[in-house]
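Revision sheet: structure tokens.
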Amino acid sequence: MPSNPLFERTVTALLAGEVLCEYRHEDLVTYLLVPENQERVADFLSQLSRTLRQTGNKDAWLCAYQDLSVSGAREGVRQQFREVANHLESLVAFLRLVMNVETNDRPIAPGEHLYESQLIEQIAGTPTLEEKLRSLTEKRLFSTKKPDVAGRIRVVMETLVNKGYLVRFGTSGNDYQATGKFSWLYDMMSFIQNHEGIPEDAVDEDNQMRLT
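Predicted:
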């Protein structure tokens, strides 16, 4: 069977730890929605002791370890968990800031739009929101010395693009769309909430953590 560029790109992205969603990887997700393609990808991954799965609300696809006894699997999972844990406080603070700005009682969902100009307009001149933004940009993930609201917001949004949580859309360069990586983040947050204290062996107990 001749090689299929979409197959190769899909498995390469999954094995690299990418969270695939329609907003950031539209062509790869469209490829996976065909049952025969999905089966081919799953069969290939199984040969590497990996499995293809979706996030809890089906917004994104990712690759997980089938067996944590495989060489390097457990340490790989722990490393990824450590990275998430290190950034979790910053990400939660960002989600809370947006909820406060938009007076919304739910966090950002994949596919939702965020407009840099609106965030700046709504935060600037509101002391409580400016303080929340200042506190957010003192955290390691979003750290910046920018003194103004616009500069700080820009750093936050750029960071989220670089981390795969947002993509730009439109022609302005300042309008953003949330990706399925937020769905993955919420799965991780649920795991943490359900495993208070997170013992070192917790990664052995729940497939939420078995990420490549």
